[in-house]
Design goal:
Strand order of the largest sheet of chain B: 6-7-8-3-9-10
Order of helices and strands of chain A: EEEHEEHEHHHHEHEHEEHHH
Strand content of chain B: 15-25%
Radius of gyration of chain B: 20 Å
Largest sheet of chain A: 6 strands, mixed
Largest sheet of chain B: 6 strands, mixed
Strand content of chain A: 15-25%
Order of helices and strands of chain B: EEEHEEHEHHHEHEEEHHHH
Oligomer: heterodimer
CATH topology of the largest domain in chain A: Rossmann fold
Number of domains of chain B: 2
Number of helices of chain A: 11
Helix content of chain A: 25-40%
Distance between the termini of chain B: 50 Å
Number of domains of chain A: 2
Number of strands of chain A: 10
Distance between the termini of chain A: 47 Å
Structural class of chain B: alpha/beta
Helix content of chain B: 25-40%
Chain lengths: ~290, ~280
Amino acid sequence: MSIKVENLSFSYLQSTGERVEALTNVSFSLEAGAFVGVMGPVGSGKTTLIQLLAGLRVPTSGRIYINGADINGRGYDRNRLRQTVGIVFQEPEHQLFAPTVEKDVAFGLKYSGLDPQEVTARVRWALATMGFDYDKIRHQSPLALSGGEKRRVAIAGVIVTKPQVLILDEPIAGLDPSGRDNFLRFLTQMNQAGTIIILVSHNMEALADYTRHLLVLERGRLVDSGPTREVFIRLKQRTTGFHGETGAQRIATRLAGCGLAHPAAVVTYADLLSALKQELTGGGRG
Amino acid sequence: MEGENICYKYDDGGSFALQDVALRIKEGEFVAILGGNGSGKSTMVKHLNALLRLQYGELRVAQINVRNEEEIWRLRRLCGMVFQNPDHQFVSAVVEEDIAFGLENYEVPRDEIPARVRSALAMVEMDGGYEKRALHTLSGGQKQRIALAGVLALEPEIIIFDEATAMLDPGGRQEVVTIMHKLHRAGKTIIAITHYVEEAVAADQIILLHRGRILACGRPRAILTDRDLMRAAELIPPLPVRLYYDLQQAGVHLNRCPLTEEELVEAVCQLRSKI
């Protein structure tokens, strides 16, 4: 599994006749096993980028290759794309529609050719993965659940097809902290099982703790990309434009005032904890 | 606001979304409501302006009995609400038209509307050129501030933020939090539901909900530094609190459990100067 994006641009005409460049000349490539974060301010092109990757929009120029095949090329099988790439939109709970949770989650398997027993097993797996007790929830109406529960049911409806690439647009906004951690751990498991994960998020801690690679968008342009830790360190040094930092980075900078060594190397909570252990037990001085 | 024995059950035959909830919120207080998904946070605040009608118990908001049908519109005007997604709260495509919409609905005299719109925009620090802007050209934080301005134009005394920062980028979140505190200082009662525990640190009172019941309420320090309580509510304490306990486990003892980043830095620097 690989994804290659070359000089991708997308623009559209506004009702005023003005042309808006949502994405300009974006290039990157992802290999099997990638866990990628996409960050940038609201309106920087993140959602446009993932809509293009999922084949929901056609680029104005540039190419997207999945496993070497141009997904917008003539003769490309769009059905294959739908089976390969799963996308969880912002607030996916708005897509719930079936009378019961079980039917809603199973909908994605309708044309999969799986036999009913397999469908049930998959639905059970997807719901359990999202932290539900299948027997308790299967007959409930999805519309009667709380906001966070609806979100988890909607995501179960996407992962039930076991896509090879899973794209998520701000999936953890509105989830409580334990729901957030469970969900991110689940993404890690999917990733370890070989799924490429593309996670769009404003949550700096989530991006720092879970992704291995970051893409930073600003005004439709890819302004930085690379291993997560390196990108966070560079972002911290930026003086203009989008500024993302983790709580641990912010605290480490302030602690430099009382002599914390190498504050710039601290990105995650775990970094901060181990730096402080070293400093405060005198372990770093031996 | 004073409520007793509030219970609520959605008509899906499920269990109680709220059970035996009592609350007391003073005028001008900043109250943060914390709790996991499905804990009843949204159900609770929707009672305050009668978006949900009281089924059991008693609730009075600014001396208005929320059961009183005749007072509902006055109650809703008094008690404004901002939701998670600003895009769902707009009814118009242009900033000033959107803010004027609520005023027109409440039959505010036409000639008063422009001044009310301007003053609402000033309160969210978006005066000076934003009146004619198309909403879709604004950033997330700006959109949420316009949604808030639409609420403020009705001159509410109480403003409820139902996860109003959840969808925003860090900059946008900071913008909205800053305005919340500004409104609080101006005397408004602020009720904020949030999943960012850091946003609750500066509140006067925290109400901690779990599975439809109030688990605890009190000062942020008492609630957020109580690791067992936070665990029981299925929440994660703020970073300085977590760090305090994790360091303790490693044999490093800060002089007290810090709640804010300032306190953490102070405690670490103090300990370090002794080594």
